[in-house]
Design brief:
The complex is a heterodimer of chains A (461) and B (432). Chain A is built from 9 helices and 25 strands. Chain A is of the alpha+beta class and 461 residues long. Chain A folds into 2 domains: 7-221, PmbA/TldD superfamily (PmbA/TldD fold, 2-Layer Sandwich); 229-458, no CATH class. In chain A, the strands form 5 sheets. In chain A, strands 1, 2, 3, 4, 5, 6, 7 and 8 form an 8-stranded mixed sheet that branches. In chain A, α2 (116-133) packs across α4 (203-221). The longest helix of chain A is centred in the N-terminal third of the chain and has 21 residues, at 69-89. The termini of chain A are far apart. Chain B has 2 domains: 4-214, 2-Layer Sandwich (PmbA/TldD fold), CATH 3.30.2290.10; 224-430, no CATH class. In chain B, α1 packs across α2 (73-89). Chain B has helices at 4-17, 73-89, 116-133, 205-214, 233-247, 250-254, 315-321, 342-347, 397-400, and strands spanning 22-38, 41-59, 62-68, 104-110, 137-155, 160-176, 186-192, 224-231, 275-277, 300-304, 307-308, 333-334, 351-355, 357-359, 368-374, 376-380, 383-388, 392-396, 404-413, 417-430. The chains are: A alpha+beta (461), B alpha+beta (432). Chains A and B meet through β2, β3, α1, α2 and β8 of A and β1, β2, β3, α2 and β5 of B. β3 (58-64) of chain A pairs parallel with β2 (41-59) of chain B, so a sheet runs across the interface.
Amino acid sequence: MIQDVIKDKKSLFDTASQTILREQENKARMVVIQQGSIVANTSQQSAGICARVYKNGVYGFSSIAEVSGEAAERVLKAATENADVLEKHAVKKKAPFSPYKNGMVLPKKCIEDLEQKKIIDFCKDVDTYIAGKYTDLVNRRVIYREDSAEKFIYTSDACDGHTIYPRCAIYISMAVAGKDGNPVELMDYFGGNGNLSDHVNNIEDVYKRADDLYNTLRLKAEGVYADAGVKTVILDPDVAGMIAHEAVGHTVEADLVLGGSVAGPNLNKQVASELISIVDFANEAFGQTTDIPVYLDDEGIEAQDAVLIENGILKSYMHNRETADHFGVKPMGNARGWGFSDEPLIRMRNTCVLPGKDKLEDMIASVDDGYYLTKTGNGQADLTGEFMFGINMGYEIKKGKLGKAILDTTVSGVAFDMLKSVDMVSDVPTWSNCGTCGKKQPMCVTMGGPSIKCKLMIGGR
Amino acid sequence: MADLRTVSNTVKELIEKKKINKAHYTVLETETRELTYEGGDVKLLRTLFDRKVNVKLIQDGKLGSSGINDFNEKAIDKALDEALAAAEAGAPDDAYDIAPSIGEQSFSSGVLEPDMGKLIERTIELAKDIEKQYPKILVMTMIAEYSRVNKIYRNTNGSEAEIKTGNYSVVVEFAGNDGNKTTGISAVSAETLSLDKPFIEIDSFREGLKAGEDSLNETGFEGKFEGKVIFTPDCLGQVLSFCANCFITDDAILDPSSLWNGKIGEKVASDCLTIKLAPSDDRIIGKGFVTADGFREKDISVVENGVLKNYLVSLYTSKKQNVKAAENDGNGWIIEGGDTSFEDMVKGVKRGLIVGSVSAGYPGSNAELSGVAKNAFYIEDGKIKGAVSETMISVNLAEMLKNVAAISKETWKTGESVLPYICFDKIVISGK
């Protein structure tokens, strides 16, 4: 745990500005074993202090890689000077942010350091198991990644607090030769809040995951290319969560709305089937703490859930203090920065499609000719809501039954068009807890949802 | 400003005291000054000061590494102990090594003292130029930055390199907008050492902004066909990055199933294709001087007249797989201009696309690329018919490189790369 060295510096805040002072430490660990060799074995630590000063519509920001009272004074001075310089060039002057309550928010969990030896031993153990049991693999990797952050936040006119985000991810990937001799690969991952010991109680569970991954990979190696075109598909939670984040979430970040996103003219309009509701949860969902629990954001706003789509109607955007004022709403705690030198940006937290009432087996039975898409590795979307996701695993559905596995493909569509085509939503949501979102800075996020049935464009060859 | 040499000496003394077999370490300071222009006005000015000590060590044949951003001796001591503990927990591997000595060297390049007043002036001027000359462009964000790095690299084989670099960069994110309709996001970016001329004159900016406006004029086609795709230089950079990841970098060469494994000296691309990494070229601003492994950075040919010449691999991978280490971290991608003008290239397309970027994940080791063509225009009978959306392209990258139809005379020099337009044949294109 880091020492709070900035608490008594609030007295130095410029009274004509709205100021945030933040002390932060990020820790990262990475172990990579590829084909039995340790190719990465590293720990990284970075700490520092930053200040952001808001004045008449412009921001000054400064950071320094030093944790001391003197460093806090220097960044406060530099950030104020930067705001003063910029104010001279600004065309439009803006009012201060709307008042917000004062308060103190404290963390509910600590970051616990784990010996690197335990991590390496775990990775070696899993790799040895896979190498010994599956001798036909042409490539294998076991990866452990940890990226945790701890912050002290002091503000001139909002809440102060101490926040902690411990997080880890474990990846297992395998490849076998496909029918044409070319490699076919598949990856499984798990993790979330905490470190290795929070997610692996029994190594046998990890072996079971590796077994399942291999068996699924074998089906994929015998797989076929999907037929290109607009198809009826069932998206597993892994894929549906990606839709919630990439295709909907980004378009309703208020800074992108102001940049012309498709969500701009659609507030309070029907943008999806009535079966679709999407929420960006702050710290608790379905009665449980989320894996990225945000209690206080980096502008000193207490985090609350943001309901983005409710029964198909676009209900709200995600905001920082400035955009909340612009749209005349309350901020819900979405402004976060990744490292000590990063300014807070509007970011998602735990974004999820809410479950419906259908059973997955009924959904599959209802498809005459389509696909069940179970794993995605990546996704992108832009202002228009046009999105793509890579599909790493899936199956044909023929006459209501699962058929052959399919090889890697891509799906694409326009978010609001696709969501309007949803006609079944399953009753069980699951989370993907290892996401890292990229938007100028990286950011830890989770995404989730149930299975959904819809129409979208699937790529083929 | 800390004395980097004093900090580096501290690291050296601690390494000797701990009797570490082999190590290399970098001590560095960075300064970043960044202006953000957003919503039609200046928005944010940041000054960032960071520092780092990065150590990679090999003890009893085992690897450990750590990094901190603290110059305090106790913190450095702790970081070294963490790296040692990590190594102790690892496994020995003969392939772990550090580069041989490059002796004592000193490098300095670029702008070491920024003119922030001028940078702010040029950025505001660019916003005004875009507003006036490209009225259907909505600028979302413009970030102009000055960054400077001072560092000292050393290793236990006797290398010592002091490196000072600095440069400006600018990136503009924008969309075409006519009031009722907004296109997808586009971006133009470049690094520069000079603020003498307006940013709008930078290679690629006018073409990129014009394409953004043209994207408002949509056309479409139905179905699927095999045709030609012209990648813009920016998009070509993205596609080269996909290819590097699939074929020539550490991950690919450590993967026995990678498609170019064992193919040095073999033909992997069309005869007309020569791809090199040449950070020493005057057109390249991003010079590293010393690689992450500790080699003096060199220019290398990756593909020469279609023949694979070098992989882009680290010392570890080179020893593990018995191939030559790249001695280049991937800086300075250059494909020289060809003999076809862009105009003639378009005329040579019976049916196909111009693609400004591909929305796709990194292809796997089988090199199958399938993604959405963004900032894309449909060509029929040698004429650009209009912009397209919801259009996908699919191709195997290894096959694609063997199907170069033409390389443009025109190149874009962004400071990071020099690349032309390239037209590839036999790419599957699917419309709505």
